Amino acid sequence: xxxxxxxxxxxxxxxxxxxxxSVVYGHPALAAGLRRGLILRARPLADRHAPMELAIPGWxxxxxxxxxxxxxxxxxxLEVLAHCxxxxxxxxxxxxxxxxSGAGLGSSAALSVALARxxxxxxxxxxDTDAVVEASMVGERIFHGTPSGLxxxxxxxxxxxxxxxxxxxxxxxxxxxxxxxxxPSGVPRQTGTLxxxxxxxxxxxxxxxxxxLDACGALVVRARAAIESGDFxxxxxxxxxxxxxxxxxxxxxxxxxxxxxxxxxxxxxxAKLTGAGGGGCAFALCxxxxxxxxxxxxxxxxxxxxxxxxxxxxFAVEIDAT
Amino acid sequence: xxxxxxxxxxxxxxxxxxxxxSVVYGHPALAAGLRRGLILRARPLADRHAPMELAIPGWxxxxxxxxxxxxxxxxxxLEVLAHCxxxxxxxxxxxxxxxxSGAGLGSSAALSVALARxxxxxxxxxxDTDAVVEASMVGERIFHGTPSGLxxxxxxxxxxxxxxxxxxxxxxxxxxxxxxxxxPSGVPRQTGTLxxxxxxxxxxxxxxxxxxLDACGALVVRARAAIESGDFxxxxxxxxxxxxxxxxxxxxxxxxxxxxxxxxxxxxxxAKLTGAGGGGCAFALCxxxxxxxxxxxxxxxxxxxxxxxxxxxxFAVEIDAT
Lengths: 322, 322
Prior knowledge:
322 residues; four-stranded antiparallel beta sheet; Ribosomal Protein S5, domain 2; seven-stranded mixed beta sheet; homodimer; Alpha-Beta Plaits; alpha+beta; 2 domains
């Protein structure tokens, strides 16, 4: 065990672009890293035996990492640090965030990835990404039981990734950047309930819902090709179709529908929910940064109560071409 | 040729319940007769050689049936009367309507069916329905080129009918009445444009759109069984899914989406567009007449400009159990 940590490390947030829900049935999905994620900075405490401190004001976290705690963030951080053979006393870690927590944007994976990067071999070169993902998964298991690993992969690697159940992640090359406006709804998402709801609807109407899931899967394959070739119009059209198919699965929500309609009215080329739905976030896909700025301005004007709260304020993010 | 007409005859309007657009690709659809259709009353003119008059104030029609006219209503009516071996002079026909014209609710078929009923063997028994449909088709061809015959069948027979391309109409037995609120959008429908738009989207993304069309077709089969067994919850759930699938085909419209959202907020169990979409009408499906009244009241309050205009005023209609 060393007593050191790196000074600073960061991780991406995550947004599912396409394929949520159908991915449960073996179809592919696409997720992107959000560079507005988390930056952690570490500085030594005067008392090197004092418990580690973790303060992330943007997520309302101000914790001491005590082994006796049953706070999931404390438990996850201690597990990650132990996995990395890192100190668990004598440091204060402060975090700057660029995304809300608990909104399906991969905040827990961003935390464990950034923490692993602070902790793995802090006096050596930048840690290997596979090792970072592995350490992050130790924390993710505390939060999510049996996580797919997608969030950790995207938090560590950024960019756009294709994934399918049992096949892991594959980086997707973007021919052109994607300009998104992320729109948290302020309505809590209910992943388990919604996944179960889709399954129940499929059990009731298999001949209706199975083809819808097939369409969702085919849509992701086609959209991936369009992303790789820089065919923005196709990506946008398919993202809009995806929103309607997700609605047919029963996982949208009036607040998400409202945000999507507003974004389209203010110049977005497409808008859809992301993740489990039933709350959580939607995103708008814009052709240019100027369009994204217009969507943000329109949302601020028409839904000022969301824009005023940092937990629900829409924000623009660019997914870089690779 | 006789110089007589019946005193009075009526016909139903038509509303497509489920299966619009996918019916173009060979899948089944369901349509219902709207008893609020058209009542025609005939009275002799003093001058038996004066041209026939047709006045339907609710559809803004006040016409003399002159052979020299190129007004499609005049031409269609004269063709129907000639087909029925009926007089074309000496009568005034006045119509009371219960539905707007040009909204995809089968107004032209209602006119030709009611006219055929006035005209076929007016001193004999009620005319045979097949003969009425055949006469109506003579008029429908003037309006629509190569009509499917569905509108004429439903206008003449009422009730709920299943139909599929090349297979004609089949009556569906309802275990319980269906309570609808018909909601004209006031936006002109564009049947040809929308049918072509679906085809273009299918040509671009066959692996996405073909399964959506399959889902639409399977949905109609399942919903028909639910209508026959009186399983209202299933009918409503599938009608809502149908609206999302139609949106995925690209045929909804913000005004239709708005009307559907309003109807659901005011107590409808389901709401969807009907017919070609892109304008035209939507309908709400309600569990009880009281629910339908609440939806009507809510629409009148929130969209008073639509309610104030007879061409766009929402109206409740009951499809009887059989």
